[in-house]
Every structure is written in C-alpha cells, then in structure tokens.
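Intended use. Records like the one below are meant for learning the mapping from a protein sequence to its folded structure. Do not use them to infer anything beyond what is encoded.
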Amino acid sequence: MKILYCRCAFAQVVPQETKDAVLEKLCESGASFETVSDLCEMAARKDDRLKELLGDGETPVKIAACYPRAVKWLFHNAGVPFPQEEGKVEVLNMRDQSAEDIVNELTGN
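Structure written out for the chain above:
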C-alpha cells in the first residue's frame, strides 16, 4: 500500500492542527509515505507527477487530503484517471476526520 499526505499549503482549507497532527503521527508510526505540498496546486498546473502519485493502478493508495469528491476531480481536471475499482484509492478527509482516525486508517492500526 502507498500513503500520500497532502500538506494543503496553498489552499489552507484543512485545519493547521489536523495537518500537523497527522504528519507528526505518520512520522512516529514508521510507515513509509510521500508528502506533497498541495494537490490543488499540482492539479492546476497539470503536474505530470500526479500520475506517479497514483502509481501503477495495482498498488492500493490511501490519500490524506480533503473531501474525496474534490480530490477525485482534481486528478480528473489534471487529466489523470482516478481508479474506479473499490479499494484501489481511498481518500481520507482531514477537514472532517480526526487526526487519530486518519492515521489509524492510513497505517492499519
């Protein structure tokens, strides 16, 4: 499984405390993860790296960001197909979920 953490640096829509707590707990967990500064900004630039972030379509990806529908449309808008298969990509909403719940889901605890 691949973990992707969005810092939401430019949009500022995720509470700072939640972003900081998720990042801290991820670091403490020892789990391997990738961080991006802002998925919204990457999508606006149609950054080619977005394809890499979703991977090969075979490895499940969990994304800590904001609303799942927003994240799906960001990728769509950037021309990156979002896997439709159940369980391939899961988006966790740092706007609504607690940092503890998100980290537990990301790390399987």
